[in-house]
Design goal:
- This protein is α+β, with helices and mostly antiparallel strands.
- The chain folds into two domains: about 80 residues, SH3 type barrels; about 110 residues, Serine Threonine Protein Phosphatase 5, Tetratricopeptide repeat (Alpha Horseshoe), CATH 1.25.40.
- It has a four-stranded mixed beta sheet with strand order 1-4-3-2.
- α5 runs antiparallel to α6.
- It starts with a helix and ends in a 9-residue tail after the last helix.
- Bound molecules: zinc ion.
- Zinc ion binds next to loops.
Amino acid sequence: MDDEANTDLGTLQRPIKVNSPEFEYVYVANQRCPCGGDYTIVRQALMLTTPPSDRLECRCQQCDRERVFVFDIGSFFGQSEKYGRFAKTDRHFHEALLQLKIGQLTQAEERFLRVIDPDEGEPNFAWALFYLGSLYLELERPAEAYEYLSRAVDIQPLDAPLHQMLAFACRLLGREKEARQQLAIMLELERRFGVSDAEGEA
Ligand SMILES: [Zn+2]
């Protein structure tokens, strides 16, 4: 590994799979710096790798720390008819949220699954994974809840509500130790950043 790769975490990570350019911005908007600050995108570069990728250089609005996000754009690059498709995913997300609120759980489940569909939706949409996992908790299907909530936590490890919900899933599965670990992380994040409202941005 050369020095450049060592100093640039963005190149060491596996590119994040996205199915639309808009979702790259949603993804960054939902990330936070370890200090709690939001990121501003300072530079964008298209990289003609295989598959092609989009590199967003970001800076924390609070502490100026830099972070690079690299997105795998192979599923839509060069296919302009696919560029606007996040609008549909976003519509499904908001309709699913509404259905969840009014207790139409089967319909909400179906819609959230479309939101995170690996081909048609956005599989790295952490808030959709979070709400789908929460829905499975309501349906008393903890194994599925665990699967989706774990994915959400991997994507947004600094969001307390995700850890709290994952802890509930662990508890229902009898994974008491893991549940306690997740609750400890949740409390630490709430101490650092305050209590958030778990709405997400899209
Ligand atoms: Zn910061």
